[in-house]
Amino acid sequence: MLVIFDSTVIVANLHLVGPNFSVLLGAINEGVIELAVPTIVIEEVVNKFKEKLIKNIKSGQDALKEVSSLIRHETPFPVSHEELDSIVDHYKTNLIDRLSELRAIMLPYDNIPHSAIVARSLDRRKPFSGGGKGYRDALLWESILRGIDDKYEKIVLISGNTSDFGKKEVHPKGPHYEFHEDYQDDITNNFNSCPISLCKDLESFNQKYTFPNLSQAVQIRLDLEKDTLEGLILKDWLDDKLNDIAFSLQKSEESLAESLGFEPGDISNLFFIHYSLVSPIKIDNVYKLTDNIIVIECDFVCQFLTHCYLNKTAFFKLSQIKSITINVNEWHDEGAWVDMFINLPIQVIIEYNITEKHHADYSVSYGALYGWCPTCGLPVISNTSDHCLFCMSKLFGFRGRYLDFAEENDSV
Ligand SMILES: [Zn+2]
What we know:
Layout (H helix, E strand, L loop, with lengths): L1 E4 L1 H5 L7 H11 L4 E5 H33 L12 H18 L3 E3 L6 H9 L12 H13 L7 E4 L3 H4 E4 L6 E4 L1 H11 L4 E4 L2 H9 L4 E2 L1 H8 L8 H17 L2 H7 L7 E11 L4 E7 L4 E19 H8 L5 E7 L3 E19 L4 E9 L4 E2 L6 E2 L19 H12 L1
Parallel strand pairs: 1-2, 1-4, 2-3, 4-7
Antiparallel strand pairs: 5-6, 8-10, 9-11, 10-11, 11-13, 12-13, 13-14, 15-16
Helix pairs in contact: 2-9, 3-4, 5-6
Bound molecules: zinc ion.
C-alpha cells in the first residue's frame, strides 16, 4: 500500500513526530506501507514554516518589548531576523532527513511539461475550475500521475484540502471522501484497477489502515484501567496536560466546525475562557508498537466555555440544541459574537515507553460526535449503540410507542 502526503499533513505536525508518525514508521519498517511525497509539497511546507516563523517572531518581539518597558529592563529576543534564512534551511534539511527515515519516495514536478498543465487548465479539468486557481494542486496531482507506477494494490492520498480533491460522503463510521470525477478519470487511465482513496489527515488514515494491523496489549490495558501501570496514571497525566490539550484544540477551529457538521469558517475566532473535565478518561485501545513502545487511544468529554463568532448557519443549528447554552454578545449581519457552553468529546493518542517509563508524545483531536444525549446532555460518541454511553439511558431500540400505535391500529 502506498500513502501520499499533501502539505496539510506536514503543516499540522512540522517535525513529523508523535504517536501517529511512530505508528506510520512502524508500518513502513514492516513493509506494509510505503510513503511518497511530491517535492512541490516540501517546498510549500518550507514556505509555510517560514511564514509562521516570521509571524511568531514579530509577535514575540512586540510582546517582549512591552515586557521590557514594564519592568524597565531590556531583554533580547532569542531569534533575530538575520538568523531567519539559516533557521529555514536547517528546518528543510531536518525535514528531508526525517522523510528519508520514513523512506519517502520523492515525486518531482520538474518533469511535468508545462503544456500538460496548460491543457488541464484550458479544459477546466480539476483542480482547475476557472479563474486560474489550482496551479499547485495541478502540479501535485500530475507529479502523482507521473511519479507512481501501478504496482500498488492500494494508494491513499492524505490531504486536508478534501473539498479541492473530492466530495464528502456520509458514512456511519464518520465522513468518507471520494475523488471528483475528473480525478477518477485520471486514476482509471493511469493506474488500471488500483483504487486510490482520499483521507483528510494522518489520524484518520491510521484509524482506518494502520491501527487494525497492530496487536493489542491486553495486560497493559488492564493495568492502565486499574491505575497500576508503573509510571503512567492516565487521570494524573490528563490533569497535567489539560492546559496544553485545550491550547492545541483552540487552534484547530476548522476541525471543530467539521466535527459539528459545519463548513470551515462557520465557527471562527475560537477562544476557550474555561474548560473542565466532565467524564473520566476512557481507554479505547492499547496497541503494542514495539517491545517497549505502546500507543494508547483514549477519549474523554470536556465542557468548554468558549468565546467565538458563529455565522448564521452555525448559530441557528447550535441554538436549537438543549444542552448548549449560547449568550449573544453582539449581533452582526452575517452572524454573532457569542459565549457558548458546549460539551465536546476529545480524543487523545499517547505514545508511552514502558521500559523507560516516560511518554514520548501525544496527539489530540476532537472526537467523533453524532449529537448530544437528550437526557444528560453529554455528546453521543457512537451511532451504533442504542443507549447513552454516559447516563446509560436507552435512546433507541425500545418499541413502546410504536407498539401502542400498532395496537391501536389492530383494534380498529
Ligand atoms: Zn446521556
